[in-house]
Amino acid sequence: MASSATAELCDANPSLLSEGELRVLPPIFQIYGQCRAFSGPIVTLKVFEDNVLVREILENPGDGRVLVVDGGGSTRCALVGGNLGLLAQNMGWAGILVNGCIRDVDEINGCGIGVRALGSNPIKSNKKGLGEKHVPVNIGDTVIHEGEWLYADRDGILISKSELSV
Ligand SMILES: O=C([O-])CC(=O)C(=O)O
Where along the chain is substrate bound (predicted)? Predict the structure, then answer.
């Protein structure tokens, strides 16, 4: 019976799991975007109900990286919509993880990236430009640093201190 990449990675790396070098995010994220499985080095961003910095980062070449947006778990507005999904795709990002909400679900599901978020909310975010780029973030009691690796598939989302061979 075939197992998925994240399951294989967990099975193959029990010591990394027990040492906390490899962590599993809690199963609180919905699956969006065309890429149901994706991985890459992490870029971090901490914001709260404001997505100006999300656009600023996605305007840079993604080079296969994954943007992890800690939106503090707020579900009161969307931090990523169809335009930003398209921008991420066109700039070469592998995916976006949002500890918060997205909107324009149909458009995002048409984008050639992977997207995970708590859910959707049609309300747009503030546009003040507040937040911190490239700082450690805490999502579901998991501290995530820029440069760590994210592996996502339908089974779950892994954060690893180093690149793992799938
Ligand atoms: O600009 C925003 O607030 C998010 C959005 O709707 C989009 O990316 O299309």
Answer: 81-84, 103
Distance CA 81, CA 32 (A): 11
Closest by CA position to 68, among listed 77, 76, 58, 60: 58
103 is in an annotated binding site: yes
pLDDT digits (tens, 9 = 90+) for 83-93: 999 999 999 99
Do residues 33 and 108 make contact, with C-beta atoms less than 8 angstroms apart? yes
Complex ipTM tops 0.95: no
pLDDT tens figures, 104-156 = 999 999 999 999 999 999 999 999 999 999 999 999 999 999 999 999 999 99
Atom 7 in ligand 1: residue holding the nearest Cα: 81
CB 144 within 8 A of CB 46: no
pTM of the prediction? 0.97
Is 160 close to ligand 1, i.e. is its CB under 6 Å away?
no
Ordered domains of the chain (ranges, CATH): 5-160 (3.50.30.40)
Rounded Cα distance, 159 and 166, in Å: 13
Q: Atom 6 (ligand 1): residue with closest C-alpha?
A: 81
